[in-house]
Amino acid sequence: MIALAVFRVAAYVRSHRVYQALLGILAALAILYAARAPAGKEADVLAGSAALIVPFLAWAARSLLDTEPDRQREMSAVLVGGRGRELAAGLLAALTACVAFAGLALLWGVLLGMSAAPDGPVLAAGVALHGLSTLTGLTLGALTSRALLPSPAVSIMALVAGFLAMLIISVSPLYWLTVPITAWMSAANAGQLVARLPELGAVSLVWIAIGLTCYAWLRRTRP
Asked: Phi and psi of 118, rounded to 5°?
């Protein structure tokens, strides 16, 4: 299973699909950090970065899971001992790519996007938010991958619509009905990110778990 995950990451890089998400993230970060944030706004910067990269991480996960042909995916399931291991290898490979991109965004923000270094609790909250954005992007990308949505047009529209739905719902009082991306930024702007992180993190993890469970269940009936 580990060998299959490594193979998929290598295929993702060699197919040059990696540059689709990478260039998007670099452009977005360059705009976000065009000027260093003033002292005291470190939480705002980290929360904004975590929210901004979610669609690019979803694109990366979707692209990686779409790299190989359907027949090769079926053969991979046979070789690794079952569809469950094949599915886990795909998610592990996609998670690896998302972690790399999220780590790049976090380092860029900490090293180049702030006038002053964040204190310990704010930095820890920022790391946690980037972890949540990684899992959110992985989930959204998996749910819109070709194994579930064969049409590229439908897949892309579903990815964009899913992210927009998260933004719209999470700005309302019903933010707990989705991963509360906008609520992350609102809490940071209000200076409450550290205090509200357990609540927002728990809501996010619940929906991430539901999304990944749905993906695994749907893949049981699809090649």
From this structure: -70, 150
Are 167 and 176 contacting, i.e. CB atoms less than 8 angstroms apart?
no
Q: What is the structure's pLDDT at 77?
A: 65
Q: Which two tokens stand for residue 100?
A: 């790399």
The residues, ordered by sequence, that sit 6+ positions from 125 with a Cβ below 8 Å of its Cβ are 43, 46, 193, 194, 197
pLDDT for residue 83 is more than 80: no
Give the model's pLDDT for residue 191. Answer: 87
Q: Specify the DSSP class assigned to residue 179.
A: -
Query: Tokens 């790399």, residue?
Result: 100
Q: How does DSSP assign 56-111, residue by residue? A: HHHHHHHHHHTSS-HHHHHHHHHHHTSHHHHHHHHHHHHHHHHHHHHHHHHHHHHH
Could you tell me if 131 and 98 are in contact, meaning their C-beta atoms sit under 8 angstroms apart?
Answer: no
Among all chains, which residue has been given the structure tokens 């990696």? 18
CA 19, 25, 26 angle in degrees (round to 5)? 85
Phi/psi of residue 114, nearest 5 degrees: -130, 150
- Helix 120-143 to helix 193-220 angle (10° resolution) is 20
> Per residue in 114-139, pLDDT tens?
877 788 898 999 999 999 999 999 99
CA 108 to chain centroid, in Å, comes to 17
**How far from the centroid of its chain's Cα atoms is residue 179's Cα?**
11
Please tell me the distance from the alpha carbon of residue 177 to that of residue 222, in angstroms, as a whole number: 28
Q: How confident is the model at residue 13 (pLDDT cuts 50, 70, 90)?
A: confident
**Residue 114, strand partner residues:** 37
What SS3 class is residue 37?
Answer: strand
Q: How far apart are CA 6 and CA 179, in angstroms?
A: 29
